[in-house]
Design brief:
This protein is α+β, with helices and mostly antiparallel strands. The protein is built from 4 helices and 7 strands. 26% of the residues lie in helices and 26% in strands. It is globular and about 45 Å long.
Length: 142
């Protein structure tokens, strides 16, 4: 991997966040009106810089004691398959290993086909448990 990629342990700015979300096709799924407040309430953030541009991000949300969720892992399409996802997950894993108490629950949602990538970091399916989620649409969980 090029030494031009730098890991910065900080939250993306709202502009960087919107830019990355749009670049990976999440625009229709995001509520950018509340995104900055959400970023401010996150536990940990990481961005990857290439020259003067932020090309990757990830963050951890949760209560900081029992529940931690990895969110918003995104890499600019032109920088994908260059190890940036690994740089993001290594920074997040380091944060969790240092800050999450014993028996904490660490969750994430993986896009279909990306499970093997996250398996490398200890994330697996568990017998008897099914990941589920809902989305608020027109004031109802759907």
């Amino acid at each position: 991997m090029s030494e031009e990629y730098i890991t910065l342990k900080r939250m993306p700015t709202i502009a960087e966040y919107i830019n990355l979300c749009n670049a990976v096709g999440w625009k229709a799924f995001m509520n950018f009106e509340v995104a900055e407040e959400s970023l401010n309430q996150s536990l940990f953030g990481v961005v990857i810089q290439y020259k003067d541009e932020i090309v990757g991000m990830g963050r951890v949300v949760g209560d900081g004691k029992i529940y931690f969720y990895i969110q918003d892992i995104a890499v600019m399409p032109e920088h994908q398959s260059k190890g940036i996802g690994s740089m993001i997950m290594e920074a997040i894993s380091e944060y969790l290993n240092e800050n999450a108490p014993e028996k904490s629950f660490i969750g994430l949602f993986a896009a279909k086909g990306k499970e093997p990538f996250y398996n490398k970091y200890g994330f697996n399916k568990h017998d008897g448990m099914t990941g589920m989620f809902g989305v608020i649409h027109e004031s109802k969980i759907m």
